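Checklist before submission:
- one chain only
- standard amino acids only
- sequence pasted in full

Submission:
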Amino acid sequence: MKFHEKLKALRTANGFSQHYVAEHLGINDRSYQNYEYGKREPNIENLILLSAIFHVSLDELLCRDDFLQSRGVSADEY
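Returned file contents:
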């Protein structure tokens, strides 16, 4: 799963609107929509806030295990 797909999945699983998340990040709705559409990526501060909003680790938010598996690397190696 890619970051933008994970972001949308977390938002919908929590029952949040795009507006709700954007408001908590202090950005406009369009900027947040661009994250979910894969057109832009959040800065580190917003990544930290997103992990707090969704109550997940940064590793989970960023799909770390999926990324490593796609590279043929075991997550236990790092």
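Reviewer check: Helices lie at 3-13, 18-25, 29-36, 44-54, 58-61, 64-70.
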